[in-house]
Amino acid sequence: MDKNLSKALKNAKKISETGLSESIWRAIQAKQEKYIKIQSLVYGITGILSLGGFVFMSLSFAKELSSFGFYQYVSIAFGGDGLFLNYWKEYLLSLADSLPVASFGALLFLLVSTLVSFRKVIHQFRYKLLVS
Asked: What is the CA radius of gyration of the chain?
C-alpha cells in the first residue's frame, strides 16, 4: 500500500514538473469561462428581448381588455344593485368570455421567459464570481 502511494506521489511530481497538469487545468478553465460568457450573453439578450416584449404585450393586453368590455363586467361586480349575487354564474361566464385568452397566454409566457432568463444571468454571474 505504501509503495503504491509513494509511486503515485512520484508520478504526480513528474507531471507537475513538466507543467502538463497546469496547462490542462488552464485550458479547462478557459473553456469554462468562454462557455459562461456565451451562456450569459445569450440569456441576457433573451431576457432583454422578453422584457421588451412583455412591456408591449401588456399595453396591447390592456387595450384588448377594454375593447372586449372586461372593465364593464368588473364594474358590475362592484355595483350596489346586487345583480352579481343573483346572476353570478352568468356573470362569471361573461367575464371569462370577455378575457382575451391568447394575449393573456402570451403575456404569461413573456413574463416567465423574462424571469427565467434573468435568473440564469444572475446564476452565471454568481458562478463567475465564485470561480474567480
From this structure: 29
Q: Is 73:91 a contact under the CB 8 Å cutoff?
A: yes
Q: What phi and psi values does residue 82 have, to the nearest 5 degrees?
A: 80, 10
**Burial classification of residue 113, based on how many CB atoms lie within 10 Å of its CB (0-12 exposed, 13-18 middle, 19 or more buried):** middle
Q: What's 9-78 look like in SS3? A: HHHHHHHHHHCHHHHHHHHHHHHHHHHHHHHHHHHHHHHHHHHHHHHHHHHHHHHHHHHCCHHHHHHHHC
Q: Looking at residue 1, what is its pLDDT?
A: 56
Cα-based distances in Å from 70 to 50, 61, 93? 26, 11, 12
Closest CA to 112 of 42, 47, 52: 47
> Which tens digit of pLDDT belongs to each residue from 10-48?
565 555 555 557 777 788 888 888 888 898 889 999 999
